Amino acid sequence: MTDLPNMPSFESLALRPEQRCNKVFNAIIKTLLHNRNQWMTAMQLVDDCRKLDLAQLRGNTPRATIQGAISTGLSTARTLKVEPPIEKYKATYGVCYRISLSLFPKDSEVIASMDMNPPPDNVNQNPPVRKPRPKARKLTYTKKRTQTQVKNKKPPPKRPAIRKITQTKRTKSRQQLYEYTSESDSEESDSVDSESDDSATDESDTDSSDEQPSRKRIAKYHSTSEFTSESESDSSESDISMDTSQQVTNEPIPNDVEGFNSSLCTTSEPSNFDINLFIGPTSFAVAQEVGYSYARFRHQGNMRCPKSNCEDSFSIKDLKNSDGSFLCRLFCLADGHGGSGCSAFLTNKIPSRLENMLCQYDYSQLDDQKVQEKFKQDITLLIKRLDDEYLDAKREEYRKWQNDVIHNRGRGNQVEPVDDGATLVINLFFGEWFINVNVGDSRTLVGCKTDNKWMVEFSSEDHKPYLERLALQIYSNGGVFVDNQDKPIKFDPFPQERNVRANLKNARIRLQAADNDLGVPYKNNNGIHFSLNVAATCGDLLFKLNPSKPVISCKPDIFFEKLGPFTEYNGNRFMLMSSDGLFDHLYSNKAELQNQTIATCIGQQLDARCQLKKIVAHLCNREGDRVLFENTLQEYDDCTCILVLM
Predict the structure, then answer these.
(1) DSSP classification of residue 399
(2) Predicted local distance difference test score (pLDDT) of residue 113
(3) Please, how many CA atoms are within 13 Å of residue 39, restricted to the half-sphere of its CB?
(4) Is the domain of 361 the same as that of 509?
């Protein structure tokens, strides 16, 4: 569309990037500019948007779509605390809209020539014609049959007797897992459950009175019918396997860690690590749960099937100077995918490499921006060298395997290598400074208590394909964005003004051309390309076959914050670092809401003086809290949580 003379362009209007994300709202603004900002009704906007081909207004309620986009634009302006972009005028024939004059440039000549008067009420606006409602049909009643008609009517033929088959309990649908029963009823149900099922769950401790019914877990259930979908049966079985001590109540967490930990979860405290317990943050805890899935077939029951090994790896160490004195405390976490080799490699190599690098710095000089920039360059180069070292080792493994396949026809001792990768999170407590280094979608958040409320003070940004700064690099280096069904997603190669691309919200990354001489596999047995849902990793040779143009990079985000002495906070601030196994299973899928939910959950338990190892164990047990986590999933990823009081 070409703008009329003397009319400002859409780009020159005073709109924030957050206000330009809605395509329908942008079409409304451009339509009003095309009509020289005259007052227009919603139906007029619908007609002109379709004529100008600015928006695809489909469905039966296009006018409601226009009104909803305008309401969204006004609410966004209120959130950003800026002037409303649209003006309203209620006429007799409907509500009229036009662009707010505050959006135009101050020196624009259009404002002077614009008609400031409201639209006349006698204008024919061609309101939509509604079809008249059809009249109600009169009910007609037939005459009653006489006795002669009844006598003359032939009786229906007798059908053969059919034996009535009673439905057993197996054909009935499963009852609800929770019921509200009084204490007498609960005792009866418990006695029945103990006789019928030896694996009945224990009763949860409640403080309800005799008169008030208490919420009890009903372990006895009917199996699903043959018409029930497999996903429903799986979710029901996963619910039943959850221990009753994991119910969400308003009471503080009980003092029994085993009540929250499954056999797949382990916890660690500062005494389990070789660190100086008198320097730096000494109050922390670690919990790690191995990923697992539930059996796909009903005859296998609700048994958990754990993974062969945990792909998460972490390291907590004190880095020391050349003379053996304390230098800083390191918290490192790597979340592997495709295998555990890369994550273990990073957590083993990083402490010694960082120790050699940090010996060259004095934390008192980090106030200088030039020193911070030099620090960022050094640690970025350190991670890049570790990544190259691991990729070179993988290339050599694939070369040896290729030679074995060609010359020995696979009869040698060479095993097919595994192309794996890992995300990386490094948190350093260097003097009075807190330094965060992030690669991938593992996350670090810092929560603090202000005005008796726990808020998120800092959180790292997940490196996802929808980030504008990463999407352009991925596409230009040969990456393709696909959905979960491996279908390509249309991508605009021109830079966008917004920071996030909405159409890539759930996108994955794969290669355009993945044939290679090393024999790195790029398809699974079903012919589907291997893809990733993270836009920055270490390892992953398939996406870095061309070292000069890697599809996915390992460039980290680095954050500095001066904390001061640790004694002045009195436990009102904490740092949580976790793999995506925690955040991917929350009900909310927005990072801001996830961070605030976790910060509030941890803060409330800190106020209740719960032990740190119980808090991290509670977070890792994702089937134990129905308020935070979805508990109807078939598969659970590895989860590692490190909680530090600052």
Answers:
(1) H
(2) 67
(3) 18
(4) no
Residue 327 CA from chain centroid, whole number? 36
DSSP designation for 609: T
- Asked whether residue 195 is assigned to any structural domain, the reply reads no
How far does Cα 132 stand from its chain's mean position?
Answer: 48
Residue whose tokens read 């159409």: 503
Q: How many domains, in total, are found in the chain?
A: 3
Q: Looking at this protein, which amino acid is placed at residue 316?
A: I
Residue 632 lies in a domain: yes
Contact 542, 522 (CB under 8 A): yes
Asked whether residue 128 carries a pLDDT value surpassing 90, the answer given is: no
CA distance 161 to 155: 17
Residues 485 and 576 occupy one common structural domain: no
What is each CA distance from 591 to 460, 497, 580, 582, 596, in whole angstroms? 10, 21, 11, 12, 9
Q: Which band of pLDDT confidence, cut at 50, 70 and 90, is reported for residue 341?
A: very high
530 and 559 assigned to the same domain? no
Higher pLDDT, 162 or 526: 526
Query: What string of DSSP letters covers 625-638?
Result: -TTTB----SEE--
pLDDT, tens only, 380-403: 999 999 999 999 999 999 888 888
Phi then psi for residue 539, to 5 deg, are 85, -145
Domain residue limits at 495: 479-536
CA 181, CA 134: separation in Å to the nearest integer? 51
Question: Is residue 98 within 8 Å of residue 38, measured between CB atoms?
Answer: yes
User: Does residue 280 sit in the same domain as residue 375?
Assistant: yes
| Token pair 């997940």 in the structure block, residue | 462
pLDDT for res 352: 93
Which pLDDT tens digit goes with each residue over 51-66? 888 887 777 788 888 9
What CATH number does residue 399 fall under?
A: 3.60.40.10
* Neighbour count for residue 463 (Cβ, 10 Å): 24
Measured CA to CA, the distance from residue 171 to residue 228 in angstroms comes to: 10
Partner residues linked to 326 by β-bridges: 320
Determine the Cα angle at 215 with ends 210 and 218, to 5°. Answer: 120
Length of the chain: 646
Q: Give me the long-range contacts of 457-460 (CB less than 8 A, separation at least 24).
A: 457/573, 458/559, 458/561, 459/591, 459/595, 460/425, 460/436, 460/557, 460/559
Token pair in block for residue 504:
């890539």
Residue 185 maps to a domain = no
- The sign of the dihedral angle between the CA atoms of 544, 548, 550, 554 is positive
Q: Tell whether 515 and 571 lie within a shared domain.
A: no
Indicate whether 459 and 488 sit together in one domain: no
Q: Look at residue 214 and tell me if it is in a domain.
A: no
